[in-house]
Design goal:
The protein is an all-alpha fold. The chain contains 5 helices and no strands. It has a domain of 61 residues. α4 packs parallel to α5.
Amino acid sequence: MSNLRAIAAALLLICAARGAPAQGPPQLVPEAATLLPAIERDLEAAYLTPEERKDRRVFHGVWDERDLDSPARRAMAALETWRMDEGALADPATPISLRARALVRRGRA
């Protein structure tokens, strides 16, 4: 009788497992980043000029295309996203420190 119970329990377990909805892997990367309050305050500081505000958005990684209006900002954004083919990384108007960092990341320095 206990053998029959064991078989019935095993069958019940198998049926329950097959009937359970399949779950995908957990989402490891969030849809959107949430900024820390300190960063939000930094970006909204009243004393920043529009140019400084663009620099800060690029620095914190929350820029949009309107912020990338200079070779230096485009180069910084390219370095942050590992787009080593960005033309701004070779532009003479880009600071030498950013161009050098790109060369190092490309393995050419």
